Amino acid sequence: MVHSAYDSFELLRGCPMKIDAIESCGSKLLVGCSDGALRIYVPQPSADRSSQSDYHGQAHELRRETYALERTVTGFSKKPLLSMEVLASRELLLSLSESIAFHRLPNLETLAVITKAKGANVYSWDDRRGFLCFARQKRVSIFRHDGGRGFVEVKEFGVPDTVKSMSWCGENICLGIRKEYVILNASNGALTEVFPSGRMAPPLVVSLPSGELLLGKENIGVFVDQNGKLLQAERICWSEAPSIVVIQKPYAVALLPRRVEIRSLRVPYPLIQTIVLQNVRRLIQSNNAVIVALDHSVYGLFPVPLGAQIVQLTASGNFEEALALCKLLPPEDSSLRAAKEGSIHIRYAHYLFENGSYEEAMEHFLAAQVDITYVLSMYPSIVLPKTSMLPEPEKPMDASSEAPYLSRGLSGMSDDMDSSPLPQLTEFDEHAALESKKMSHNTLMALIKFLQKKRYSIIEKATAEGTEEVVFDAVGGNFGTYETSRFKKSNKARGTVSINSGAREMAALLDTALLQALLLTGQSSAALELLKGLNYCDIKICEEILQKQNHYTALLELYKCNSMHREALNLLHQLVEESKSSQAQPDLASKFKPESIIEYLKPLCGTEPMLVLEFSMLVLESCPTQTIELFLSGNIPADLVNSYLKQHAPSMQGRYLELMLAMNENGISGNLQNEMVQIYLSEVLEWHTELSAQQKWDEKVYSPTRKKLLSALESISGYNPDALLKRLPADALYEERAILLGKMNQHELALSLYVHKLLVPELALSYCDRVYESASHQPSAKSSGNIYLTLLQIYLNPRKTINNFEKRITNIVSSQNTSIPKVGSGSSVKAKGGRGAKKIAAIEGAEDMRFSLSSTDSSRSDGDADDFTEEGGSTIMLDEVLDLLSRRWDRINGAQALKLLPKETKLQNLLPFLGPLMRKSSEAYRNLSVIKSLRQSENLQVP
Fold first, then answer.
1. Which helix (H) or strand (E) holds 259?
2. Among 852, 755, 837, 766, CA closest to 796
3. 3-state DSSP call for residue 611?
4. Distance CA 379, CA 437 (A)
C-alpha cells in the first residue's frame, strides 16, 4: 500500500542558469550552474519562526522554506560541474569538473587540485580513511589526504573498460564498467568478476550504510557483500531502470526518467511513494532530506515524521510496515514505541483473525503482550471461571480500546491513529455472525498455541505466589478464612490454596480454557497430559465438561490432581461395573478393569489407609491376590486390614489371611494366625452340623476348608489350641483334636485318637516321627524316644487306653471351661475325682514317662496278664507292634520295648527288630573297645 513517506517542497525556483550540480552545506544550498558559477542559497528570513532557539537548532539542517540567493562565486569551474560533495568531517568541498578540486569551507578558497584527475568522469570518497579513488578512461587512481593541504597518490591500476560507476566497499572498490561489475583489490589491483551489467541501462553502484552494495541491472537492484557475493535471493524491482539511487533508511529513493520512486528496504521492497517531477537532473542525499534538482528549480523531499507514517500505514492496513517504522523511533521514546507497537500488533491481530490467519493473529497478540483475558473474550463459547479479571466479550476494536496507549504524543504524530476505525471490522455489527467461525478447528488450534506460549510464565507466577503464601503461613502469617469459591484447590502438589490472587486467577482461566480447546480439537491425550501435571483447572467447569463429553480418563486425572480421591474412586468403580455389561463399549472394557482401582489406590496407602480399605473391598473378590499385594506393598497394618475385613467383608477375611500367610509367612502375627484358624474351624463346624443333621457325617471325608484347617493346624503355631479345642465336638473331628492335643503336648491322647478313633496307625507313626524329629533339633529337650514306647503301650493295651482316653478328654474339657456345652452325641464319661486328676497329670507328662524295669516288670506273672486281658476284653494289636519295632528299631530303646512285650511273643517275629538292633549294639561295643584300648595305649606312652 502506498503512503506518504516524503513531503515534496519547492526550495528554489527560477535559477537564472541551468543547474548542473547541487549540494547542501548545513542549511545552505550550493548550486553549480552551466555558466561555471557557484550560487549559494539560504532560507529567506521568516517572521513566523517559532523561536530563535529553534532557528539556531536548524542551522545545520535543510529547512522546509523558500531559499534566496546569498552570493555568487563566479568562475568556480571552467567546465560544467559533474558533481559536488561536502566533506563535513574535514570542512572541505569536493568538486568534479575539468579535474577534481578541494575547497576550504565556508569561504571556498581552493585547497588542492588533483591534476592527474583531468578527464575523470567518476569518483568515490572514503571519509573514514580519507581515501579518494577516481576513474579516467581505463585507469583507476587512488589518492590519500595527508591531513593538511595536499593529497598523496597511493596506487593506480588499469581496468578492462571505461568505468561508469564506482564505490568503495571496505578495503576494495566496486567498479561498474561498460558490460559488467568487478571488485578491484585496492592493494594489488586484482579484479574479481561479479556479474554482467544491463544492456540498456548504464551500470549503477550504490553503497549501503551497512557497507554492502546495491548493484543495478536494468530495473533490478541486486544486493551483494563487499566481496561481490549475493546476499539474498530477493531483489528490488523498480518500475524503470534508475539513473541515481539514494539510500535513506528505511527507504531507497530512485530517480527514474519521469518520476522519483521510493521503495522500502524491507523484503519484498514494496513501493511506498511516487513523486512525479519532470526534467530531473540531480538527486542527492542531504543530512535530513533528499534534494532533487531540475533545470531551474530545486525540490526538497522531507521525510514525513515517523509517527505520522505509522498512523497512515496502520489506517491503511499496512501493519508490517508500521511495525518496522516503530523500531526506528528514537531511543528516548522507547515507552511510546512499545505502546505504539502494542497497539499496532493488536489491530493487526484482529485484521488477521477476521481474515482467517488465526495463528499469525495469535503471534501478534503475543507480541502485543496482551492478557489472555483479552484473547479469551473473543471465544464466548469457552466457559471460564467467574472473575473480575475477565472483560466483557470482545467487540470490534475502536479507538477507545487503545486510548491508554495512544494518549501520549510524539512530534509530528497525529491522533488520526487513535480515532481511525479498524478497517473491515467496522462493517460487522455484532460478533454473533462470527461465532461459529471462532469455534472452528483452526481458530481453536491457534488459541491453543497462544495459551501454551503464555502458560509457562503464568504458571510460574502462580506457583511462586502459592509458595510464598505457604511460607508466610508457616512462619505465623494469618490469612484468615478463605471463601469457598470455584477457585479453591486442594492439591497434594500445591497444598490447599485459595485462588484469590491475580496470578492464580489468571492460571485458572488459562488452564480451564486450554483444557476445553484441547478437547474441542480432539486432543484428548494432550488434555490428559495437562491434567497429569501441575495445573489450575477449575474443578466445577472442567468436571461438567468432561462428564458431558465422556472423557472419563481425563476426569479421573482432574479428581486425582485435586485430591478428590473419593469422587475418583466412585467414578472408577462405576466405570468398572459398566465395562462388565454386555453392552459396554470395547474401549471402555479395555480401559477400566478392577485392576484400575488397585493401581489408583497404591499411592494412597501411606496417606489414606481407610480410603484404601474402603474401596479395596470392591475388588477384593475379583482380584484377591492383587488386593492383598496392595495391602502388603502399601504397608497397611495387617491388624487394621483384618478388623476392617471382619466388619465389612467377613467372607474374604480368611482368603486375605491365607494369602497373606502364603506371601509373607513371617509377617502375620499370632493373633492373625489364630483368627485364620478360627475362621476355618467355624466353616468346618457348620459343615459338620449340616451333615450330622442329615446323618451323612463321615470322619474320613475332607472338604476343601477342612483340608485348609488341618494344614493350618499343622504348619502354623501362632494360634491358641486351648480355645480351639473347646469348640470341637466330642464325637467328631478326631484328627483336628489329635493335632491340637499334640500342640498341648498331650501325646498319649493324640496317639490314642489316631489308633482307636481314626483307626489309621500310619497317622500315629507319622505323629511319632514328627515329635521325635522336632525334639532331636533341640539339644536341651528331653529324650524323645519314649514317644514310640507310648505308641507301643497303646497297641499292647487297646481297651485300657480307650477308657483312659475318654476319661482324660472329659477332664481336660471340664477343667478348661465347665460352662462350655459339649458338641456331639451327648454321650460322655464323667471323671472320677482324684483318680482322674492323677491320670491327667500322668498323661501331661507322657513324653517323659519312665517305665519301671525293676524286678516288678521282670517278674510279671500270668496273673498280671490275666488282669490285662480282663480289663481290655480284646486282643492286643500285635501286628502293629511288630511293624513299629521293625520300622523304627533305631529310635526305640530295645530293652524297654522287650519288657513291654507279652511273654507269648514269638522270637522269630522279633527278628526284623532284634537283628539290626544287635548288629548296631555289637558294632558300638567293638568301636568302644577299640577307643578304650587306644586311650590306654596313649596313657602308657605318657612319661
1. strand 259-264
2. 755
3. helix
4. 10
**Length, in residues, of the chain:** 943
490: left (phi > 0), else alpha (psi -120 to 50), else beta?
beta
Residue range 889-915: mean pLDDT, rounded:
78
| Residue found under cell 484358624 | 677
Across the chain, mean pLDDT equals 79
* Separation CA 929–CA 280 (nearest Å): 147
Where helices occur in 7-94 by DSSP H, the ranges are 52-57
Cα separations in angstroms, 369 against 339, 362, 417, 769, 864: 10, 10, 20, 89, 118
pLDDT (0 to 100) of residue 881 = 80
Q: Which parts of 501-649 fold into alpha helices (H)?
A: 502-520, 524-532, 539-548, 552-561, 565-580, 586-591, 594-601, 609-616, 624-633, 638-648
Region 549-559 average pLDDT: 92
How far is it, in rounded angstroms, from Cα 38 to Cα 69? 11
* Residue 354 falls in which region: left (phi positive, over 0), alpha (psi -120 to 50) or beta: alpha
Q: What percent of the chain has pLDDT over 70?
A: 79
Residues 571, 579: Cα–Cα separation, whole Å: 12
Residue 32 parent element (H or E)? strand 28-33
- The grid cell for 900 is 513291654
| Cβ neighbours, 10 Å, residue 359 | 16
* pLDDT range class, residue 801, cuts 50, 70, 90: low
Stretch 630-653: mean pLDDT: 84
Weakest-pLDDT range from 257-266, 490-499, 540-549: 490-499
**Cα torsion for 838, 841, 842, 848, to the nearest 10°?**
-160
At 140, the amino acid letter reads V
Euclidean distance between CA atoms 830 and 807, whole angstroms:
7
Whole-number Å distance between alpha carbons of 750 and 773: 17
At CB < 8 A and 24+ separation, what contacts does 452-461 make? 452/514, 453/366, 454/366, 454/372, 454/510, 455/510, 455/511, 455/514, 458/372, 458/503, 458/506, 458/507, 458/510, 459/507, 459/510, 459/534, 459/535, 459/536, 461/503, 461/506, 461/507
Reply yes or no on whether the pLDDT at 728 is more than 50.
yes
155 to each of 131, 133, 186, 249, 559, how far by Cα in Å? 11, 9, 8, 34, 84
Q: How far apart are CA 284 and CA 290, in angstroms?
A: 6
Report the C-alpha gap between 453 and 455 in whole angstroms: 6
Q: Distance between CA 355 and CA 747 in Å, rounded?
A: 100
Exposure of 384 by Cβ count < 10 A (0-12 exposed, 13-18 middle, 19+ buried)? buried
- Indicate the pLDDT class of residue 475, thresholds 50, 70 and 90: low
pLDDT at 854: 31
Count how many Cα atoms sit within 13 Å of the Cα of residue 403 in the half-sphere of its side chain.
Answer: 4
Give the integer Cα–Cα distance in Å for 147 and 151. Answer: 8
What does the block give as the cell for 53? 532557539
Residue 794 CA to residue 756 CA, distance in Å, equals 9
Inform me whether the pLDDT recorded for 424 exceeds 70.
no
Write down the pLDDT at residue 93: 93
Query: Peptide bond preceding 160: is omega within 30 degrees of 0, i.e. cis?
Result: no
CA 399, CA 385: separation in Å to the nearest integer?
29
- C-beta separation of 348 from 355 below 8 A: no
Which of 33, 23, 31, 25 is CA-nearest to residue 107?
Answer: 25
State phi, psi for 155 to the nearest 5 degrees. -145, 160
Q: Considering only 535-539, 754-758, 802-806, which range has the smallest mean pLDDT?
A: 802-806
| Residue percentage of the chain with pLDDT more than 90 | 34
User: Is the Cβ–Cβ distance between 65 and 11 less than 8 Å?
Assistant: yes
∠ CA 157-161-167, rounded to 5°: 65
Strand duo 191-196 + 83-87: pairing: unpaired
